[in-house]
Design brief:
This protein is α+β, with helices and mostly antiparallel strands and 52 residues long. Helix content is 46%, strand content 23%. The chain contains two helices and two strands, in the order βαβα.
């Protein structure tokens, strides 16, 4: 059974275009996608703490 929950992405990439390409691939495959782009180690740490 497929989950209806969206794929949650935490993207660490300085390129907005690269991040958007990942999101588009998943959405075109029919996956609901929620993405958050981060650009630093501090943002990564904070985002991971929010999810636990």
């Amino acid at each position: 059974m497929a989950s209806k929950e969206p794929v949650r992405l935490l993207i660490l990439d300085s390129s907005q275009n690269s991040a958007e390409e990942c999101i588009v691939v998943l959405r075109n495959a029919g996956k609901a996608t929620r993405a958050h782009q981060i650009e630093s180690e501090q943002e990564l740490s904070a985002a991971l703490k929010e999810q636990t």
